[in-house]
Every structure is written in structure tokens, then in C-alpha cells.
Amino acid sequence: MARRLTADVVVIGGGSTGAGVVRDAAMRGFSAVLVDRSDLGQGTTGRFHGLLHSGGRYVVSDPGSASECASENAILSRIQAPAIERTGGLFVAVPGDDPDYGDRFLAGARATGVPAREISVREALRREPRLNPGIVRAIEVEDASVDGWQLVWGAVNSAKAYGAQVLTYHPVTNIEVADGAVRVVRCHDQRRDEDVLIECRFVLNCAGPWAGQITELTGLPPVPVVPGRGIMIAMNHRLVNTVVNRLIYPADGDILVPVHTVSVIGTTDVKESDPDHLPIPAAEVQQMLDAGEELIPGFRQARAVHAWAGSRPLIKDDRVASDDTRHMSRGMAVVDHLARDGVQGLLTIGGGKLTTYRLMAEHIVDAMCDQLGESRACRTASEEIPYDGDAKHYTITHRLADREADRLDDQIICECELMSRSMFTDLLDAQPLSTLDDLRRQLRLGMGPCQGGFCASRAAGVAVTEQAVDAERASGLLRLFLRNRWIGLWPILHGDQVRQTAIDHWIYSGTFDIEHLPEPAEEVVR
Amino acid sequence: MSKDEAKRLRERLNNELNRATLDHCVKCTICEQSCPVSAVTPLFSGPKFVGPQAERFRDGESVDHSVDYCSSCGTCSVVCPQGVKVAELNSLARAVMKAEHGIPVRDRLITQTTLMGRAMTPLAPVANAVLGNSAARRVMELAVGVAASAPMPTAHGQTLRGWLKKRPAPTKAPTRGPVIFFHGCAGAFFETEAAKAAIEVLEHLGFEVIVPEQGCCGLAEQSNGLFAQASDAVLKLVGQLRAPGTAAPVVSVAGSCGGMLKHEAHEILGLDDPDLADVGRRTRDISEFLMELYDAGELPTDFAPIPLRVPYHQPCQVRSQGMGMPAADLLRLIPELEVVESNAVCCGIAGTYGLKKEKYEIAQAVGKPLFDLVLELNEGLAACDTETCRWQIAKSTGVKTVHPIQLVHQAYGLGRLPGLG
Amino acid sequence: MSRDIVIGAGLAGLCAALRLAQAGRPVTLVAKGAGGLGLSQGTIDILGYAPDRVFAPLDAVRAVASDHPYSGIGPDAVAASAAWLRDELGPELLVGDPGVNLHLPTALGSIRPTCLAQPSMVEGAVVGGRRYVVVGVRQLKDFSPELVAGNLARTPAPDGGAIEAHPAWIDLPARPGEADASGLTYARALDDVAFADAFAAAVAAVAGECDVVLLPAVLGLRRLGVWRQVSARVGRPVAEVPLQPPSVPGIRLYEALLGRLRAAGVRHVQGSLVTGFQAKDGRLRSVTVAAAGGPRELAAAHVVYAPGGFESGALAVDSYGTIAERLFGLPLTASSSPDLVGPDFWAPHRLFQVGVRTDAAGRPVDGEAAVYANLYAAGGLIAGAERWREKSGDGIAVATAVRAADAIIGGAA
Lengths: 526, 421, 413
Description:
Chain C: GO terms for molecular function: glycerol-3-phosphate dehydrogenase (quinone) activity. Chain C: This is Glycerol-3-phosphate dehydrogenase subunit GlpB. With about 525 residues, chain A is α+β, with helices and mostly antiparallel strands. Chain A is about 35% helix and about 25% strand. In chain A, a hairpin with a 4-residue loop joins strand 11 (about 180-190) and strand 12. Chain C is α/β, with parallel strands linked by helices. In chain C, a hairpin with a 2-residue loop joins strand 15 (about 365) and strand 16 (about 370).
């Protein structure tokens, strides 16, 4: 017996696009349900470098995107301040870079309305002393860093406040089309192991790299999505406190972003076929380390803590060769299935970027309103999203200040990322079905140098003590967490992280003999 | 001191290899296991926390004031197997914080060691009366926050310079070449006996002992976060020690201050000065110097027996010089002298830490295992390489505490420690 | 004057230094920091899995592959070295029979084989039919009694029987006003007899019906009989369960061994990295120590190199994947890492079996020949075992340290 729901609109995909869309739709008074096959922000949104673009990156290559980024950067900084750190950004030319590109950059910035100002090399080096001392030009921009998960959770919580429902771990199994219109979205609640039927007027396919798979469920011709894989490496501490970009035409390995306690070097761009299997090839790791070395001498001796791969959800565009996804337009693409396939009530969205997620959502919901023949105004740009605590911009010192205040009264479970016991138990209480990874994305549990070595067992223990799970599930969750951390560890296993991995194994295998806990009947995967 | 100063320090930190060493931290807790302060109080969050852990969260304004409970003993860096410069990170973070938030008058006052010595010597009886007078101490505590029962130096009527001038010239001609003698402020003013013994031992061994005019090494200022003053002081001292114009070894009887010359001025103050590096390379603790002679077969060991059990404490800032425990090795060469190593991490005073009102009880708790051991095992004497630690041990146990060289001095028949048969 | 130089203050280095000093040789122990013993579980493993659970470790030692560190040593020498260490530390710190494994509960609730254990732990040995109460301390985050009890209760004992286990809590700050205390803080507090009494009373109040009370391994650091005091008060056996670092049982072993070797006259240089060496005619002449102020040359009669493996950086992988031994540039069993680690977290990681090979005396070899006539290796540096998986690190450390020391002593005599 399936559970039945009804809604005006079903949003498929809990990344930034889906989160923005569900918020926008709910704020315009639509009853909306967001479904995702796993947790929020687990796809592309959680697998980027953390950059909130100033637009600088695109002033030459893609002026339209540049202007959009500039205005959305300002809007998000206002409505989602706690998810954003105003780090500022620098574009720097290292020896060998085309020195004249800077002039084109400044001209492009003027033309696109992207705030930019050339500063002296000396001033750039004063601000960022670890920068390559040989840099020849430096341009200051308003880049910021952003926590994609905080962004998504903020938008989704806002949507919920407007009545939206959010169903995670609900993969879509079928989309029923009748009489030329979408009628029902069928999904499966994996945690309760039951089918869920959502009758609806409209479906917004915001599944990013998986959007092609979703359209296939409708029986319509597939939308050609080209996952453009990029790898990123998080370095153990902030080698810079400002976003540093290469002052060149956009290329691989040209961005270093200080986000939370780490700095992230990115990225590559390689065409893939399956967004569920994104490798982190050794050659690309080496490419990133070389790129880092050009920006920060000694980068290779700095500690890499974790690597990941994300895939850009680009919809195929015949104007560029399909194996060079970087030069596809970064603008969003909306496939109207009424126009394309004659099916009413279905839009598929591709492209776009996290910085413009709100604007994308506005366009998509506008398009839906057009098709429905309704006129409802978008209000997402003006209304601030409420976050717990104050509404100030994130600063790197926040958690240190918080723990300074409460460390005698609370326990610190994750020492690397200064996550307290009550932060963990509060979230566990609100989201009791979460895996440790689900909690990690919101709390940064296990994301520091030890990668869970000292905290994951504590977290599992607390979860049992709090009666959120039994010991068997806690042990399964712990195994899952360690397995998942390993995905991003083994490709960068060199330098200090080898020492750490050895220590972690001494603890989990050596002291705890974790591998000889009774084998789970079925490995915990969610 | 200002925001600018804080900014400058932070910029320096960001650009320093010391900060990069935080990458080596594997969170193993070894530094926490050895920290003498977090062992006795939860007010200090421990070296791993304030060091490599908190450093990842620092940019801009200081928010973790508990870093001030670090005593700068340096043990964390000594025990870290991974090469994290824990103490150095902590010191710089504290200096940044103090630059931002200001430094109490008290910290300035107690760091003026040379000034204090100069001012007190001519008036020693008066100074001692004032500092020894509990009412006056109480006023001082209220006024500037020096704990009323903390050990304060006792001034002597005669400075080392005065003694050098007045004593008869050495009768034996040097047979081994020159050494430059570094006595530290205490050796100059407060506690000249150790310095005199060291000079006489060196002369007995045939060295020509050159004692250049010398000021304070700045260690006390450094550990109170007064980096600018400390840098001025140590560089001035370096100039003075180089003044004789010889490449001879610099032999130090001031245990912890020798460490300032060897590494702390470079590692913590961030001074990259070739003259400092030169002096640092040449500096030897007196016991280290003698044990190098011993290992080379050049130290006479015709020691007279001293039938005594003596608790020996190696100060934290001597241990951090990474030379082992030469004083204990040296004392063990003296027949019938039973040396009991304290195995204590720190006596608590850590330079000037234990002088502060809000730190006094912590310092006493840190030192308690040491004091208990000294009280239990002493036969009238304890030994320790650093002046402030000797004052702390003596004040807290009532047991006379001498520099190890004073026992060597007696064993060579050059004098007799008062009260020892 | 040349001395025997031991590099490294882990179990292997401490054992080698002690053994040499006891033979009357002048020894200097040089270590960058405190050794890793304080991070360990504080028991002496010989061989726990091969790959199935081992009950008689010496039999399993006899059967190891030819490239295993135990292979050239043999069960008799392994047994003798473990017994030597046990007798050095005495029955207040280490008990057991090198021929028999104990199966002790862990802080995750798994059942871990080990060999020699501290007397405060042995009552925990898991036997079918036993009823446990697992007691946590609210202010100590590294031990969840629900997790331990829940996992024990679903795990068959090594003898095949079932185990009963229930959680309980006490709420007793080690220091007033501190909600987050480490195991070490508790151990120091429990060195105080009065606090230990209060602790024991609190445990007794929640122990309920059971055969054994399992407690986090925090029962005193310097005062070794605290577990007896607690057991007497609780009225039944108690057993310590080792925690993640800081590990109190490991620190006990470290401090005890350090005390023994200082008493034996070993010079201990701590906090200084050995950065270089001088060699002539195939022998090491000295090692260079980076002391404060500048390098110091320590003349070396022999060198026992016991710096650990990958966890200490003695074996290191650079950003290009090249594996190297840090100090002497010794030949390793593999020189490139990328093929030695893979995506399966649970699979053996061959990288961590890389190390030096030695001759029968424990000297690192290049091909068949010793690299230096007077350089010996001990402990984690030696290739051929993923120690944490096998539960073999301690036994290898002790056996190879004794092998190296005895070769030096025998050769010198």
C-alpha cells in the first residue's frame, strides 16, 4: 500500500537548484514537495570548491554569467549571510601568464559591472604572504566562500516554513504521464521501505547530472546531460585567507578557495558518462598539486586532507565540441518538454552554477507560471533566510569563539572542526534518521585533518547513548562513515596524511579491532 | 601595542614555517599527555587545542583568550614526535592576543629583570625588606597582580661585576683558550654564587673566562608576549656576547636563558639575524659544555666525593634545548653523590608565569609533584639549572637549591657549599 | 667516547636501550618526541589474527610467511623477549603467557585478541555465559557503555557462547566544572585515594547484577592498584577497557620503561630529530642531532634504529608517491605508493607492509648485505606486516629490539 500525497509541484533533486526552486515555489504559494534519492546537497552542490563567484572568472569568457554572478553574489550575501564568508578575492598573474590578460580582465569587469580593482603586487603579498612572490599583477574582486550545504539547508528550511515538504532518501521510480500531462511522481521511501505517490500538476526536474535519468522515467526521449567531472583537493589549513584565482582565461587548477578551515584547490573538467562513478585520477591530483605550487610555493609540502569529484550538470550544447565542457555556456538551460515533447507540466533544468542558484530558481518558477498561465511574483531576492543564531556573515573564528565560551560545559566530539556534543545531538534529534555523513555535511564532523580518526567512534557512541540508533546500526554507520572518508583519502595519500592514516588505523583496527565487530547482515548504506 | 602590531604579528605567523608545522599534527594527544598546566587546571584547554587545532581557526581578531594560560614551558614541542611547533604557535597566538587586547602593567614590570636588578643592588637590604615584607607584597599584588606568596628574587649586596673587579686575578695561566661567559641577569645581580662557581670551575679547567658586559636576554618579556622589547633585548645581548671578537664557545650558567640564545629568539620571536645564529651555534649550557669535554676524554674527573642524595630538576626550558640531561650526567660523575632526577615536567614558575596572581595557584599545583619529591628525598640540598626555578623550589619547599655547577665546584675542591660537610 | 645510540622512544627503542644498558653498555636514546606507547592499547600483542583469530600465538608465529618480521626470529625468541619484558615490568603492569592469547573487550564492543595484558584488564576476558555491566562516565566522551554493551551482547564469545551485557553510567567530574575530561585527567584524579573511593562508590551503586564490571581504562596512572580498590568496593571483578589516545595503560608502560632505562643509566635526549650521520668503511661513526642552536655529533659504536613506520614519518610518501626511509635512505621493499593503496577501505593496504628487510641479526640489508655493519633496525620500520590488522606490533617491536640488542651485546663480548 503506497502513501499518497498531493501537491501543485514536485521538485526532483535536493541540490542547490532544487532547494532554490522549492523555496521560490513555496514562497509564491504553490504547494511543493521536494524529493531526493539521498540527502540534501549530496551531489554537485556538495562537491565544488566553495567559491561564491564575484563574476571575475567570467568577465572575459562569459560576460553574461559575470554580470549575473556579481548581482547574485550581492543578493546571497544579504539573504544568506551565515552561509557566506566575505573573504574577498584576488586574481593574480604568475610569471609566464599573459600580462595583457589583466587589461582585458579590467575592461571586461567594467563592462559587466563586476567590481574589480588592480592593487600592487606588494600589497597582494602583504595580504597573502604565502603567494608566489613572483606574481606580476594582482586584481582585487569580491569573491567569497560559501558553504553549499548551509546554502541548501537554509533555502529548504525557508521553503518548509512556507509549507513545502522535503522527502530525502526518496528516489523517484516513475513519472506518470497521462493525456499529455504529468500526473503522478512515484518514489520509494527507502527508510520506511514503502512507495510514495505524489499527485501533482507540475514536475521540475532539478536533478543536475542525473536529470537525464529522470527524464527517462517519463518515457520521453532523454535530455542529453554531459557530466563534466572536476576534482578538488582540500588542504589542511588556510594557506590563504582570500580566494586566489589565476589571472588567465579560465583553465584547470586556477582557483584556491579558503573555505571554513581548509583551502580548496580546483578544478579539472573531464567529460564523464556516469555521474555515480566519478574517479579521482592520480594524474589529475598531480595536475592540481602542480597548479597549487604555481600559486603557493611549497604547496606540495602542505597537507592534503581530502579529495572529491563533482560533476557539472551541463546540458549538451551543439555550439561547442562535446569533449570540452568548460567552454559551454555556464548559463542555465531550461528544457520545456511541452515544446519539445508535447508533455505539459515538466521542465528539466541544466547548467547554471551555485552562485546563481537563486536566479535560476526564479527563471524556472517563472517558466512554470507561464505554462500554468498564472502570474505570481518572485520574492526570494528580498527576504532574508533565517538561520539559528545571528545573521552575520560566517567568519573563520566563529567556532573557536563558541568553544571558548562553552568548552567547560559541553564536550568537543570532533576536535579538528570543533563540533560540540550538543551541536551533534541537537541535529540528531531533529534528523534522527541521518547517517553520520548526513550530519557531517551540516556539522563538518570528521572533515578536519584526522578525517574521523578520533571523532567518528565518539559520534557513533553518542548516537547510541542518545537512543537515536542501536549499537548494531551505530556500528554500521561508523563503518559507512569510515568507508566514505576513504573514498576521498586514498587518492591523495601522501605526506602528512599518510601519518594520519596510519594513526587512524592504529586506533580503529589496532585498538578497537573494528574489522571484527560482527559483520552486518546487510552493510548499512543510508 | 595595537591592532597594527597584532596584524603585523599575524602576518608574520601566516608566512612562517612554524605555522606550516600545524600540518604535521595527527591529533595524537602526546602533547596533552605532557602539558603540566592542563594536567592541573581545566582553565587551559591544552597545547593541542590552542596550538595546531585552534590555529586553523585563526584569522583576524583573537577570540580564544584561554591561550593565555599557557606557561610557555615548551614541553609540547619537545614531546611532539611529529615536529609540530606547538609552543611556538601558542606563543605567537598569545602575543597577537596581547597586542590586540593590551598587556597588564604587571607583565611589563616583572619582565624588567635587569632594571629590577640594577635598581635593587645598591639598596639590597631595603629592597629585600620591601619584597620580603608581606604587607608590601600584598600592596604589590593588589596594584600589579604579582602573587603575594610568589618567589621574588633576593638581591645581593655585591654584583658579579663587583666580585670580578675585587677578586684577586686568577693565578693559573689559561691552558685551553678562551670561553665567553654568559651569566644572565640572575647571575649578575640576584644569585651570583652559581656564576662565580662556574667561572672558577672553568678557570680551574684551564679556560680563559671572558665576561663581557651583558644585559637581559628578553626571555621574560617574550613569554609575556612583549615581542618587540624581547627582540631588542636579545639582539643587544648578542652584540655584547660578540663584542670580545672571538669565535670561542659561549658558556651559559643561566639554564633557560641559554635556550633563548640557542633557539627561542629565532623560533618564537622570529628573529633571522646572522649574529644571533652565530651566538646560538656557539652557546653551550655549562653542564653540556663539560659533558662534551667528558665525552671527548678532556674532563678531569678527580672529583672529591660528596656523600649526599640530591634531587635534581631539569627545567622545562633546559629540556627543550634537546641536549638530553647533561647536568644529571655530570653530577653522576661525582663519587657518592646520588642524583635523583625529578622527572617533573615543570616547577610551575616557567619564567614569570607563577608570579602572576591569577596563575599562582596553577603554578603551585604544577610544581607540587616536584616539591613533594624534593621534600621527601632531599638531604639539605636540591639542584636545578635555572634561577627562577631554583627560587620556586626553594620558596615552595624550604630546601636550599643550587645550580649543579656549585656541586661540581665543591667536588673539584674549589669551595664548599654552606651546610655541606 | 662512542656510545650505543638508540633512535626512537617507542616500545622497540625503549626495549633496545634498556637491554643494552643492562648489559653494561653506554647508551644514548635519542627521540624526536615521546614514543607512541602512550597511544597504544597498553597490552603486548604477539599475533592476534593470521588471518583468523589466533588462540595460541606462538604456534601462529611458527607458521608466518617467510617475508614476515617474525619469520627469521622464531617462536622461542619471540616468547623469550615477551617474557623478558613482562618480567622487567613486573606483575603489577604486565601478566600473561606468551603462548596464550587473551580475548578482551574493546571500547567499540568488539572482542580483541592480545597476549600479555595489565592485571587491571584480565578479568574482562570474554567467556561465554558471562554477564557484564559496562559503566561509562558522563564527563568522559571516549566510552559509550551502550555501544560497548550493545555490541558485546550481539557478539558470540570466542568459545562460541553468548554474552550478556548492560550499560550503566556514573556522573562524577574528575575536576569541578569540567564536562569534557580526558581519560588521563581521570587517571590522575584516581591516583588520589579519596577520589578513587568516591569513584568506586559510584560504580558500586550502578553495577547491579553481573559477573564483571567493565570500566574505561582510566584507573590510575601512577598508583597501579586502583583497580583492586574499585573491585573491592564494588564486590566483584572489574576490568579496564582501553580507550583511544590518550591511552592510560599505554602511558603506564611508557613511563615505567622510561624509568627503568633512566635508572639503568641511559642518557635520554628528547625533542631532537636525528638529521644525519657520518659513515666510513661501511660503519656508522656518528649520528647528527638537531639540538637547539645547532647540530651535535654523537659518536656511535652501534645504532639501533627504531623510529617507527609510516605513523612517525620515518617511512614517508612524498607528493609524487615516492616511498623513502627518512634518515639513512635505506632500501625498502617498495619505492612507489600508488599501486599499494586502493579504494577498498577494508582490504589490506600493502603500503603499510613496506619497510626494510634485515639480516638474521636485524641489520637492514641491501640485497643480502648489511647496509652498515653496526646499524640495526627494530620495530615498525621492518617490512612484512600490517601490524594493526594482525595485532602483532608490540611483539614484533620487542622481539626485534631484543634481537638487535643481543646481537650488539654478543658481538661486543
